[in-house]
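Backbone-to-sequence.
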């Protein structure tokens, strides 16, 4: 074996490891920790799954909602988007969907209570 082949044999595994770790750094979802919370909506519980990356709210998934399809669930999604954008649960509620909005905020707060500080 010549010197170039030895260098190539040594560098290939190192490059592969670097690529694998680099790819996970580009995907925040891979680094997110998830927390579940529950709040009271108009017709029942609202359950959410909150993804947190480096102490920031990365995602909010509405796991379960009993409120009016097409309205309560839409309001919950809107509020979830506002929370992510503001990085706070102190956001405006959706007009006409007060209980769905407040229930979503309550569920996110409930989930965030489990984040280790």
């Amino acid at each position: 074996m010549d010197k170039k082949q030895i260098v190539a044999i040594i560098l290939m595994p190192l490059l592969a490891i670097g690529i694998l770790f680099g790819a996970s750094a580009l995907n925040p979802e891979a680094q997110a920790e998830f927390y579940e919370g529950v709040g009271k909506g108009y017709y029942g519980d609202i359950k959410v799954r909150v993804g947190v990356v480096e102490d920031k709210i990365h995602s909010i998934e509405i796991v379960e909602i009993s409120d009016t399809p097409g309205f309560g669930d839409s309001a919950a999604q809107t509020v979830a988007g506002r929370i992510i954008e503001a990085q706070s649960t102190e956001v405006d509620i959706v007009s006409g969907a007060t209980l769905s909005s407040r229930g979503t905020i309550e569920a996110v707060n409930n989930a965030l209570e489990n984040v280790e500080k």
